[in-house]
Specification:
Number of strands: 3
Number of domains: 2
Strand content: 15-25%
Number of helices: 6
Strand order of the largest sheet: 1-2-3
Structural class: alpha/beta
Order of helices and strands: HHHEHEHEH
């Protein structure tokens, strides 16, 4: 690679793929709603249903993540932040509702030296080696 060309870090996806199992009749109802034009596709129907349920239970959810001291949304942990924590002698407790992302340049050794616990409701993006190094600290 030429000296004046740098590889850009890829942007993490904004969604996480999940798989669900539905009974044939429920799936038929979803397809009917799509066919009748209420939703653009199955995914649109499912996302809307999930959002409606989250809105319906919003007060309980807010109380829960406040009680559990969860960071809400996207939380990045860079190599620089972890190195600063190591210099300060601090151990991090990662508690996220959303997406927690540990930098691609964080080594397993640095992660173990600076991360005391990991609790993520949503998704954790980290290298397979870092995930393996923190496996005994994940709740």
């Amino acid at each position: 690679m030429p000296d004046n060309v740098r590889e850009l870090r890829s942007k993490p996806p904004e969604t996480e793929k999940i798989t669900i199992n539905l009974g044939y009749v429920d799936l038929g109802h979803v397809d009917l709603m799509v066919q009748e034009g209420f939703y653009s596709n199955r995914t649109d129907f499912i996302r809307t249903a999930i959002r409606n349920q989250l809105e319906r239970h919003a007060d309980v959810v807010k109380q829960s993540y406040a009680r559990k001291s969860l960071d809400l949304g996207l939380r990045d942990y860079s190599r620089e932040q972890l190195e600063a924590a190591r210099r300060a002698g601090e151990m991090l407790h990662i508690n996220v509702l959303g997406l927690a992302s540990i930098g691609h340049d964080v080594t397993p050794e640095l992660a173990r030296a600076t991360i005391a616990s990991v609790s993520v409701l949503g998704a954790l993006h980290a290298s397979p080696l870092v995930k393996a190094a923190l496996a005994d600290r994940m709740r």
